[in-house]
Design a protein that fits this description.
251 residues; alpha/beta; Rossmann fold; 8-stranded mixed beta sheet; 8 strands
Length: 251
């Protein structure tokens, strides 16, 4: 992941946006594969809001969250301390160079990471290495080809395209979601299953400001203005498509 730019950045706006996500809201696709006593690695843990939910489910087994940003690891560690979630820990690491021995974990989880990776197969080979034989991996990424944004307009379509292009320039893949199963198969996983859902934002400003700040930082104030103007609509909708994939490491 070191060669890939994380498009959202790690500023206060992006961190707060990610911290809204919990295991209950964004990790349930993997719930059937978790149980008390199963050790878990969370790749791309961000501020740790999902990780702590996983730790509660598998307690007393350890859950380790890794992120390539020191600031996110610090936030996650503080959150864990405040929640007194003693079976969770966090450290700085890249998904394509995990600092763990072979067969270290029963499960690996990753949410909203693979759309930012320029070499997803390399990361999944690392995931497969640190999983125990028979262990399960659960991935989830958005797929911008399925987004529904309303009310439609040419300006909004351009602003949506501007963010997709920014993600691509930074080494990511706006259509990563639909490819997760293909990547798992290429990395040697079996029993692969995929599913999809939509997330609808309760306030347009949540997603509008999030996208606008990133586009402003990238030097595109026109697209940022479009998102902020759209956010003021009383009749708008932003429906984000999330694709999940689950696979098993052969025994």
């Amino acid at each position: 992941m070191d060669s890939t730019v994380y498009t959202p950045g790690h500023g206060a706006n992006a961190s707060a946006f990610m911290a809204r996500r919990t295991f209950a809201s964004h990790g349930q696709f993997f719930a059937a594969h978790l149980a008390p006593g199963l050790s878990v690695l969370d790749c791309g843990c961000g501020p740790g809001s999902i990780t702590l939910g996983i730790a509660e489910v598998v307690d007393p087994a350890p859950v380790v969250g890794v992120d390539f940003s020191d600031s996110q690891v610090a936030l996650a560690s503080d959150r864990a301390a405040a929640a007194r979630r003693g079976n969770s820990s966090f450290q700085t690491a890249s998904a394509d160079a995990l600092p763990f021995a072979d067969a270290s974990f029963d499960r690996v989880f990753s949410h909203a990471l693979f759309e930012h990776l320029s070499e997803p197969l390399r990361a999944l080979q690392e995931v497969r290495r640190v999983l125990k034989p028979g262990g399960m991996v659960g991935l989830c990424s958005p797929d911008w080809g399925g987004f529904i944004v309303s009310p439609p307009s040419e300006a909004l379509a351009r602003a949506l395209g501007a963010y997709r292009e920014l993600l691509t320039r930074n080494g990511g893949d706006a259509h990563a979601g639909r490819k997760l199963g293909v990547h798992l198969a290429a990395a040697g996983f079996e029993a692969i299953g995929m599913s999809a859902r939509y997330e609808c934002y309760p306030r347009l400003s949540l997603i509008g400001d999030y996208l606008a700040q990133q586009l402003e930082h990238a030097g595109d104030p026109a697209s940022a203005h479009t998102w902020r103007q759209w956010s003021a609509s009383d009749t708008g909708l932003f429906a984000q498509s999330w694709i999940s994939a689950i696979g098993r490491k052969p025994s």
